[in-house]
Amino acid sequence: MVALKDLKMEELYAPGHRLCAGCGPSISMRMMMKAFRGPTVVTNATGCVEVSTTIYPYTAWRVPWVHTLFENAAATASGLEAAYKVLLRKGVRNTKVDVIAVGGDGGTFDIGLQALSGALERGHDFVYVCYDNEAYMNTGIQRSSATPRGAATTTSPAGSVIPGKRGRKKNLTAICAAHDIEYVATASIGFPGDYIDKVRKAIEVEGAAVVHVFAPCPLGWRSNPADSIKLAKLAVQTGVFPLYEIIKGKYKLNIKVGKCIPVSEYLKLQGRFRHLFKPELKSELDAIQEQVTEDWNRTLDLCGEKPKVTG
Amino acid sequence: MYRRREEYNEVIIPYQGEGSTVRPQELAGMSGNEAVAYATKQANVDVVAAYPITPQTIMVERFSEYVANGEVDAEFVCVESEHSAMSASVGASLTGARVMTSTASQGLALMHEVMYLASGLRCPIVMMVANRALSAPINIHGDHSDMMGSRDCGWIQIYVENPQEAYDWTLQALKIAEDPEVSLPATVNIDGFTVSHAMEDLNLLSDDQVSGFLPRRKPVYKVEPEKPLTVGALAMPDYYYEVKRQQEEAMRQVPHVLNKVTKEYETVSHRKYGMIETFEMDDAEIAILCLGSTAGTARTVARQLREKGRKVGVVKLWLYRPFPQEELISVICNLKALAVVERAISFGAPYGALCSDVASILQDCEGRPKIFDVVCGLGGRDISPEDIRRVFDEADQVAKTGIVRDRLKFIGVRE
Fold this sequence. Notes:
The structure holds 2 protein chains of 2 kinds. Helix content of chain A is about 35%, strand content about 15%. Chain A is built from 11 helices and 8 strands. Chain A has an 8-stranded mixed β-sheet, sandwiched between helices. Chain A is α/β, with parallel strands linked by helices. Chain A has one domain (about 5-300): Thiamin diphosphate (ThDP)-binding fold, Pyr/PP domains (Rossmann fold), CATH 3.40.50. In chain A, β1 (about 40-45), α2 and β2 (about 65) form a beta-alpha-beta unit. Chain A starts with about 25 loop residues before the first helix and ends in a 9-residue tail after the last helix. Chain A has helices spanning about 25-35, 50-55, 75-90, 105-110, 115-120, 170-175, 190-205, 220, 230-235, 265, 280-300, and strands spanning about 40-45, 65, 100-105, 125-130, 185-190, 210-215, 245, 250-255. Chain B is α/β, with parallel strands linked by helices. Chain B has 2 domains: about 25-270, Rossmann fold (3-Layer(aba) Sandwich); about 275-410, Rossmann fold. Chain B has helices at about 5-10, 30-40, 55-70, 80-95, 105-120, 145-150, 165-180, 205-215, 240-250, 255-270, 295-305, 325-330, 355-360, 385-400; strands at about 25-30, 45-50, 75-80, 100-105, 125-130, 155-160, 185-190, 200-205, 230, 275-280, 285-290, 310-315, 320, 335-340, 370-375, 410. The two termini of chain B are about 25 Å apart. Mean pLDDT of chain B is about 95; it is low at about 1-5 and about 10-15. Chains A and B meet through β1, β2, α3 and α5 of A and β3, α4, α5 and β9 of B. β2 (about 65) of chain A pairs parallel with β9 of chain B, so a sheet runs across the interface.
């Protein structure tokens, strides 16, 4: 794992953008670019990062950057990759270009899933980085298919009858891996060395690769901006968001957790789960813990690790 | 319905043998789809991203064969939807590559959102549209509802009559679109089945002639690591309007660039194009104005009526966007009556889209002709010579009486 002291000093992500204090996605972009190896172009789906970093005439991007639409980052990347490839072959360009597509969970799990699937199947040599803050934050905290059970958002409010989002978080990593691509990984801004390593590995793979990075949103999660990294770490330590990679279909757990911390320790720092701590919703809280334990054990199993007693 | 080959021979200077400056042209039998695929291959295109849809499929099939057989060095990105076809085209075009694609009907509708990106980011992508009706009810046959639905996407729009024009305009559209003064995307519209699938003989340029006419694209700007650019930034109310105004200004450069390009193409191909094509308009009193393959039928009928001494003419628009106002006004201003024949309904509007444009330019013309709109040929319904004769008869009545009974007529339909 790359040590922090060994990271490039060069900052490709400029300060002064308009993202919030404690913004996880913003941190994830800065870290992502520490992994770049050479000529690189980034294409960005519509979302918080896109709107807040490129308000004309300003830009936070010191690499070429393209935004077209919400649901098509993977398709735009496909075109960029195909063009750079043919221009290199024809001698119009003389250096290879790494193409990185970036999208939030809405632009990836939901509206951009088809374009992503198409690009992965075609095997373009590119990396898709999904920064996951678990809802449509740019439009004002609406639920996405990455929103976890129980979270209150403006379209899955904690009502007197329905206590926040119903259903589970979509398993994006498994969907990507099901395309039998060379490399898929989960990562977290709480573990920068692991994350940067994974982006670099994904770039070095020939063909399509996906890095799914967990990135807390203080505004949407109703959490203290100073807690973003803490929450990102807790999500891993509670088993909510395990960090693993899938290399040619083989799962490997990267951050081992001896004994998972109870999920409530993670949930209680976030206003979006506040309602779950009412006595009458104890069963809901228990059900969430049960689900996390079950999923964690399944991940351990996939990674060939022995399950441990949790909670 | 189609122009006879003899008509081409009128404009093709015959090869005079050794010592002639005119080169013989290869004669080939091709459908509109195949003609466009062939032009795409000859244009040394870099990237084609496309998705199959009837009646455009044959264009992508032929092009993928060219790629599979190494006849063209290009990347064919066989995407999973038209939305991604246009998105990949935009991405590819931003690198400075030459990019072409094709679609039809629902595919064009699915691309609609992305088409604004292509024009707004000034990507000179050329797209063949095999015009087809829109659902519901589902129908795979020709009309212009698809392109008229995306009329205001900021694309140059060219309509062609037959495979020869499809071939010639594909090459010319590229040169117009890629001109630094323009740098806007363009559609070449070929009527579904009537042009897309009809096999005709056509004259082809040699590969050398095409590469001479279409050298490598010189992009106005490009996305490359050597010079980082932020493309597609957020424009707030303080900047958005300026961007759009500049885009309109680029559109206004099309007519003079088009004239330059068609002139150059004429010297290469000996086929003469422009913004509009007229038939017997010098002394015409009544006329039909239309797009695409309808013009062939209209000309055939007009020729018959001319033989009977009636002063009829036909105006075909090759260029629909930008609208060729100045060229058109001088041709139609002195008519007594003008019938616009179009293959799309603009539901609830006073006229169809084409007639609205024509009517709007006529208001500046004193002694302007009486105008009426005829909608026909929806969903591939045949536009027969009899239909066209009825339109000319109606125009005659309007010219004589000065009264338009129906501003908007629907013909060839059971009512």
